TrEMBL record:
The keyword Lipid biosynthesis does not apply. Pfam families: HxlR (PF01638). This is Putative transcriptional regulator. InterPro entries: HTH_HxlR, WH-like_DNA-bd_sf, WH_DNA-bd_sf. Residues 17-116 form the HTH hxlR-type domain.
Amino acid sequence: MAHYRECPAYDVFAPACPARLLLDRLADKWALLLIDRLSAGERIRFNQLRRDMAGISQKMLAQTLKRLERDGLIEREVHPTVPPTVEYALTELGATLGDTVERLARWAEANMPAIQLAQQQYDRQAARHLD
């Protein structure tokens, strides 16, 4: 961990900065979607999260949950039932990020028509340059 000493101010533009490494983990599509899903404030079971997040594998969901738990953004609660019931929720720290991620997700949803139009225009221009 000595390389972290090179980044005392947590400068995200420094390659060895722990804040930059955290941003790398958060920029993962599953991490953002999971934080957004949990931002409603409720505790959600593993299988419900998997159903809600179409396309994620059980292994990827488990890995993403563990990474976010290690970072202190989500908490895992195991209930003593047979079989054990496990629920996940954002921590206080995670909830502060949840607001930002939720706004980002709503921004993406609201602006998709403009983004798609820009992509189509770009693709048409790029195709003309190939001719």
